[in-house]
């Protein structure tokens, strides 16, 4: 036998029964997006590397060390597997001039790629669901997007997800704070770790985000960006807070909340949980009013968030909130292959009415004993067996037998006519 191949480290296959959880979550998200009038956008997985360098910022974790980049072997173009979707969405919006007739509310689903050390909740191919509202200055849509996420947690039954918000102000304000921060950190050079030293002049704000316990006291006492915000930025933030309060949405202001990408300004937020260990951020976002112009479009404000699908599913699992594996409504038992034409015709008619039916098939010409077929029917989880016995089929009928007590409207075996499936099909649906 040929040598077995395995998937790339940190990249997962998702198959049944887990894939049913993904479909279930995606369906809930689609319905949520529709209720908020957000529309789906699908952009390419591969983008020019320059899009992320320009969009995310050169001194970000992603651009510095996490991108899967390669050269197009035909034309030498530098390409990257998208590490996030906002830059691509903005590129598409600019490229197709999508804001010509007003602002847009968009959402996406899909795989993202980051070269990180794989661990629980952290993969190299992972999936995000995200929203972007482009052309809106907020804070009304900021509050709308935060509410959408809260609605999703409520609908999924998730508790233990808390909201943290902050304001990053505008560039001029950040620059003033940055100078004060650098001066402060320079005075405490001896307490900085390697990462912080490296970022001291390139991206000092990110030092505040450090997870190094030895530096907590230092960053705790550092100059706070909030104290450098001007009147307008503060007003934007306070209006957002008032709109969250008005909706009864609880939050904590975390003055040290910064985001990984350079493109953020004003509102930033994260939803965090204590149930997932170190990988506790399940959803994160904020305003990126400068990004559209940075990517070559006509300046327009925008806001968005992205949630980590694997982390949400893990949280749902930890809280025992995942739905049971799907089961068919009925399982078709076929004593003799001779009746196959009638079986296939009947099952198809049933499926056309919405009944979920699994047909007994063994992969060989032999269908096996009734006993072994009933065993399979039981194992499938189906609530009914459809028994296509010779004499029943000859009489134009099929026997319908309930296999369990719960969820069935029919408790006794009955005979049903093959010629008029729609008259009895609904009976097979969950009671
Ligand atoms: P972290 O601090 O955990 O690295 P991040 O700030 O890099 O997160 P974002 O770029 O904001 O994450 O992405 C939004 C969400 O996507 C995160 O909150 C998280 O739920 C999820 N996410 C990010 N990176 C990964 C990954 N490598 N594997 C799984 N999920 C991820
Ligand atoms: Mg990260």
Distance between the terminal alpha carbons, to the nearest Å? 49 Å
What's the shape?
A: elongated
CATH architecture assignment of the largest domain: 2-Layer Sandwich
Percent of residues in β-strands? 15-25%
Structural class of the helices, strands and pairings? alpha+beta
Helix content: 25-40%
Low-confidence stretches: none
Query: Reading side by side through the largest sheet, how are the strands ordered?
Result: 1-5-6-11-10-9-7-8
Describe this structure in words.
This protein folds into two domains: 18-169 and 229-318, BirA Bifunctional Protein, domain 2; 330-428, Anticodon-binding domain (Rossmann fold). Helices cover 34% and strands 19% of the residues. The protein contains 14 helices and 16 strands. It has helices at residues 18-35, 49-56, 61-66, 86-95, 140-156, 171-187, 194-199, 216-220, 231-246, 291-294, 309-318, 340-352, 370-380, 390-394, and strands at 39-40, 46-48, 68-71, 78-81, 104-113, 125-134, 162-167, 252-253, 265-272, 281-287, 302-308, 330-333, 357-359, 384-387, 397-402, 414-417. Strands 1-5-6-11-10-9-7-8 form an eight-stranded mixed beta sheet, sandwiched between helices. A five-stranded mixed beta sheet has the order 13-12-14-15-16, sandwiched between helices. Strands 2-4-3 form a three-stranded antiparallel beta sheet. Helix 1 (18-35) runs antiparallel to helix 5 and helix 5 (140-156) runs parallel beside helix 9. The structure holds adenosine-5'-triphosphate (ATP) and magnesium ion. Adenosine-5'-triphosphate binds next to strand 6, strand 10, strand 11 and helix 11.
